[in-house]
Q: What sequence folds into this?
């Protein structure tokens, strides 16, 4: 008669071994990769985009020129020597020297003025972008989330500012100041330029606040502050970043245009727009006095526009 106790013990050992083998096989199987976030996917796409790499290199160089202009020239941009012949063509072989781009009518180095003019242009562009993003983003977020009276009030306010031509309004505002410093120009442009960011943020918040995760957070008792800044803002920020990046170049152009018209930075400030204005009288006989500041302005604006296009393609799922 077979020993049933021994047979059952053997079966239990075999079953235990099968479980160990199965467990080892499961542990040996690689776990599925953790899903990447929108930011990680965007960064991966940006690194593969040559447009982004070219614009990033240009912006880094421009930032270095703006922060440490002394690394690129040792010539005082405000010091003029009438002995310098402004009719002389640029000495293209004299890299990073005072006469590399030639001289203006006052005998000042055009290359030095182009280098030092980068600081004011970049400062105005970045400063205005930060101000309009903070103020306009906050207004749009509150209007889109709360709706009702606040949405109507802020929407009508943005409509009023949209009815004011941007450059004309900036000219009127800046004409009231006698000492137009960088901060005054930044404030005037930000005062008139926040409406676009506000509308973009409002639309993104209205779309996001009805998402399931926001409804779930509200059902679990999350407060308004937590919902706004923890759940809605991170998911509504992508279109705002795109618009802000592209608008930065627009604000640089606006500052240069106002300086060209004599309503931007003060005359003693170094500005590409001011130098372009002074060079227009010599455009026939000495086009180099106009070419270099205008070329630097165009390269700067192009770099930020390319950056904005690359960021838009990376953050917009429809364009992938």
A:
């Amino acid at each position: 008669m077979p020993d049933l106790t021994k047979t059952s013990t053997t079966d239990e050992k075999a079953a235990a071994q099968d479980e160990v083998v199965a467990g080892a096989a499961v542990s040996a199987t690689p776990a599925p990769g953790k899903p990447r976030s929108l930011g990680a996917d965007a960064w991966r796409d940006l690194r593969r985009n040559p447009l982004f790499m070219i614009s990033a290199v240009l912006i880094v160089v421009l930032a270095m020129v703006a922060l440490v202009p002394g690394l690129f020239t040792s010539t005082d941009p405000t010091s003029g020597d009438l002995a310098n012949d402004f009719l002389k063509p640029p000495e293209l072989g004299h890299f990073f020297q005072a006469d590399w781009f030639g001289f203006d009518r006052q005998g000042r180095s055009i290359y030095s003025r182009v280098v030092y003019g980068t600081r004011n242009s970049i400062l105005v562009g970045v400063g205005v972008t930060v101000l309009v993003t903070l103020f306009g983003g906050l207004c749009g977020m509150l209007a889109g989330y709360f709706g009702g009276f606040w949405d109507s009030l802020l929407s009508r306010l943005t409509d009023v500012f949209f009815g004011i031509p941007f450059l004309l309004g900036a000219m009127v505002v800046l004409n009231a100041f006698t000492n137009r410093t960088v901060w005054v120009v930044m404030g005037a442009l930000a005062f008139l330029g926040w409406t676009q960011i506000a509308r973009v943020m409002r639309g993104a918040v209205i779309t996001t606040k009805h998402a399931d995760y926001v409804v779930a957070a509200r059902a679990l008792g999350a407060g308004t502050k937590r919902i706004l800044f923890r759940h809605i803002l991170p998911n509504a920020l992508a279109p705002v970043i795109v618009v802000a990046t592209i608008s930065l170049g627009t604000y640089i152009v606006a500052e240069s245009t106002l300086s060209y018209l004599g309503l931007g930075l003060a005359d003693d400030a170094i500005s590409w727009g001011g130098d372009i204005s002074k060079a227009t009288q010599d455009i026939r006989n000495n086009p180099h006095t106009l070419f270099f500041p205008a070329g630097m302005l165009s390269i700067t604006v192009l770099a930020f526009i390319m950056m904005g296009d690359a960021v838009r393609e990376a953050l917009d799922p429809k364009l992938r």
Remarks:
- The two ends are 74 Å apart (CA to CA).
- Confidence is low (pLDDT under 50) at residues 1-32.
- Residues 38-73+101-319 form a domain with the MetI-like fold fold (CATH 1.10.3720.10).
- The chain has one domain: 38-73+101-319.
